[in-house]
Design goal:
It is a single chain. By secondary structure, the chain is α/β, with parallel strands linked by helices. The chain has one domain (5-229): P-loop containing nucleotide triphosphate hydrolases (Rossmann fold), CATH 3.40.50. It is built from 9 helices and 6 strands. The protein has a 6-stranded mixed beta sheet. Helix 5 runs antiparallel to helix 6 and helix 5 crosses helix 8. The structure holds 2'-deoxyguanosine-5'-triphosphate (DGT).
């Protein structure tokens, strides 16, 4: 599999000893993480790592995302273990700029998605235990760097509407209740801090705004992110 790596101005890299300032972009399905990352294409000091959804849709010809949505009881474990692998790949990727922006992380895979399918009974407790052990092992043995989390906070009803409009074929069966539960898990993890570990300070942006207004909202995060490149 491969993740999309967008790098502008590669020759600028001259500091290999210092690790990059690392930002996770988090938020519910359809909250605008991809649009947020696209906004930062214009900045030369940033490497963007977009989520490997395409890898999930085509692993040696198999569409794991589709299998997971069509038959979660059978495929959620397989899907989730592949998500973990692709996320770990992103965390470990050596990037050539002072700033690294990642779409999602191992943390949201564990504390939002795995948590959700464990709580709703899709995952057998034994399957959950295996995924959780993998997460703990990685967390304890591999340095997962995080300096800032940008949380695109969005109302479940709004992202539900967006998901219907974008019509990604696998997602047509996603009910509002699923998005409401995922929203609550994001809130517990990033705002109330009652779930798992929040590995970095959280900047909350209003992701309910529509495309015509969202650029101004994104700009609110520019300073916090870009000052790290100085
Ligand atoms: P955006 O740009 O905010 O609209 O982001 P999306 O919706 O393209 O990206 P994301 O990560 O929220 O979701 C992509 C699809 O993959 C979506 O159908 C949910 C699913 N997904 C992502 N991560 C996980 C995971 O860890 N477990 C499960 N079950 N599904 C996941």
């Amino acid at each position: 599999f491969s993740v999309t790596v967008k790098v502008l101005n590669l020759p600028k890299m001259n500091n290999t000893s210092k690790r990059p300032f690392t930002v996770f972009v988090e938020g519910n399905i359809g909250s605008g993480k991809t649009t947020f990352l696209e906004h930062f294409c214009q900045f030369e000091d940033i490497t963007l790592l977009t989520e490997p959804v395409e890898a999930w849709r085509n692993l040696k010809g198999w569409n794991l995302l589709d299998l997971m949505y069509k038959d979660p009881a059978k495929w959620a474990m397989t899907f989730q273990s592949y998500v973990s692998l692709t996320m770990l790949d992103m965390h470990c990727k050596v990037t050539p700029t002072p700033i690294k922006l990642m779409e999602r992380s191992l943390y949201s895979a564990r504390y939002c998605f795995v948590e959700q399918i464990m709580r709703n009974g899709t995952l057998h407790p034994a399957q959950f235990a295996v995924l959780d052990e993998w997460f703990r092992f990685i967390h304890n043995h591999i340095p997962i760097e995080a300096d800032l989390i940008v949380y695109l906070k969005a109302s479940p009803a709004i992202v539900h509407e967006r998901i219907k409009q974008r019509a990604r074929s696998e997602e047509q069966c996603v009910p509002l209740s699923y998005l409401e539960s995922l929203h609550k898990l994001h809130e517990d993890w990033l705002i109330h801090k009652t779930l798992g570990e929040c590995p970095a300070p959280v900047l909350v942006l209003d992701a309910d705004l529509d495309l015509s207004e969202i650029t101004e909202e994104y700009k609110r995060s520019e300073h916090q992110i870009l000052r790290q490149a100085v």
